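Predict structure. Chain length: 179.
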Amino acid sequence: HDGLVGGQWVYGVIIYTAVLTTVLLKAALITNMWTKWTVLAIPGSLALWFAFLPVYAVVAPKFRTSTEYQGIVVHVYANARFWLTVVLLAVLCMVRDYGYKFLKRMYFTKPYHIVQEIQKFNIPDYRPRMERFKKAVHKARLLQRLRRTRGYAFSQTEGGQEKVIRAYDTTMQKPSGWI
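Prediction complete.
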């Protein structure tokens, strides 16, 4: 190097990188389902930062903005203490969260943890699958419809329609219109 010591800007970049790494690790810890978008967002954000800083440190000082970033990349990326600090701070900050999650899943297991493991490891659970369940429901509904449509149009059972018919006097004339 040129004998110059990094300064508050180097320390700022180191701390920002460590904080960003910690926040992204926390986001990764609480993510339940990884999709292409979470992969793009979480590790992609850190990769974007590592690619953005050198470009910004070279381009911005040429436009007389952020001149303090001139030459900062040499002090940051080439320094082993930078990498050690970023990794060590992120790990130390996440030990408590990962430990809590480990204890919760291993010693204070909830039913949904068991279901997640069954799904993750594709363990057969010997219970009817959704397809068979849907077929059974469909068959039951068809049987119910058949039961509803059976019978004759004018069939009468004892105590059913017969009581209603006999309740009216058929010798009287029907009333006409509204009263």
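Summary: The chain has a mean pLDDT of 82.
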